[in-house]
From TrEMBL:
Residues 132-260 form the Polyvalent protein metallopeptidase domain. This is Antirestriction protein. It comes from the Bacteria. One of its GO terms (molecular function) is single-stranded DNA binding. It comes from Paenibacillus rhizosphaerae. InterPro entries: Antirestriction_ArdC, ArdC_N, MPTase-PolyVal. Residues 3-105 form the N-terminal domain. It holds the Pfam family ArdcN.
Amino acid sequence: MSQKIYEMVTDKIIQLLQAGVIPWRRPWRSGAAVNWQTQRPYRGINAFLLEAGEYATFKCITEAGGTVKKGAKGEIVVFWKWLEKENEETGELEKIPLLRYYRVFNIATQCEGLQSKRDGGAQQDHDPIEEAEQLIAGYADRPPIRFAPGRAFYRPADDIISVPPLVDYDQPEEYYCTVFHELVHSTGHAKRLNRSGITELAAFGDENYSKEELIAEIGAAMMCAVCGIDNTTMENSAAYINGWLRALKEDQRLIVQAAGKAQRAADYMQGITFESSEA
């Protein structure tokens, strides 16, 4: 039965990928880096440059009556500025992109005299999904899971997982999909399945990193299917996978390769030996 579910999940993901990109979002409420004044999230590379929090420029902070703490170093925010230049051959005006940046400071940790403008949103009172909890508990040598808002990650050096708590998600299914994603990463540890995407140092966006992300997201979708979580999480998974496929030159054969490794990870988490899973 599990084998059939894996195949159905993989086929569905491939169908969604072929249908086009589906906008992906972080499923938890808190944690985006936002402009303090407008509460708009930073976009593009700035979403990766800034940790979760509210940010403002020195000018904005002082005009609002706040101060920057002594010794605080601002973070950069980059943007494109378009310059007009006359083409010497045609005489026509051309727009030339020029990459610029400015510095911002975290309101909570680097400033004084300013209050957060976040309303925090209403906390969600979700009941745990028993089948998903049983799968998590059944992962015999899983790393400890800690809960902190704003980020989800697996840290191989310490063999720990950190995810936003259940109350930070609009839907409980999104919480479990996030947990499963990080748990699949953890199966790659040297003492478990020893995957190169975890055991070898990988730079963000390089081939090893991208392959490991594919494995983790496909594996998470498989685990969601095993415990009967509604496929509303599937579209988010497909869009996430598509981003990494694009980084790998959109070679969709990779999704089949990644699905095989994701299956091994899902089997491992459930305590299924590879011999018995093929029976």
